[in-house]
Write a structure and sequence with these properties.
Blueprint: E1 5-15, E2 23-28, E3 33-38, H1 46-49, E4 53-57, E5 63-65, E6 68-70, E7 73-74, E8 76-79, E9 82-85, E10 97-98
Length: 99
């Protein structure tokens, strides 16, 4: 399967109860809004994520994590135990295909 990467703007973010790492995101990818769970709460506060543009893997089969459906995956790197979200120097807009 070819990976489909898309830009998306985070509209909502909240920590998942009973989880140390998961944040539940609502991400606008241009054609629709997706619910995505990301294991980034040890590096990011939910309120700091709202309005941020991220890259998500858009063509993954939805999965349930802690009973909540996730409809994509946020791209990030890890450096010395700190998670860093993939981003842009300029605002590209929502739903743009990433190459």
């Amino acid at each position: 399967m070819k990976v489909e990467l898309r830009t998306g703007k985070i509209l909502e973010a909240e920590k998942v109860k009973k989880s140390k790492k998961l944040i539940q995101l609502k991400v606008d990818i241009g054609i629709e809004t997706r619910q995505v769970l990301a294991g980034i709460s040890e590096s990011y506060e939910p309120e700091d994520l709202i309005g941020r543009t991220v890259v998500i893997v858009a063509n993954l089969k939805p999965v349930k994590l802690m009973g909540i459906e996730s409809q994509g995956m946020v791209l990030a790197a890890s450096k010395d135990g700190k998670i860093l979200l993939a981003g842009f120097d300029e605002e590209p807009g929502q739903g743009i295909q990433v190459r």
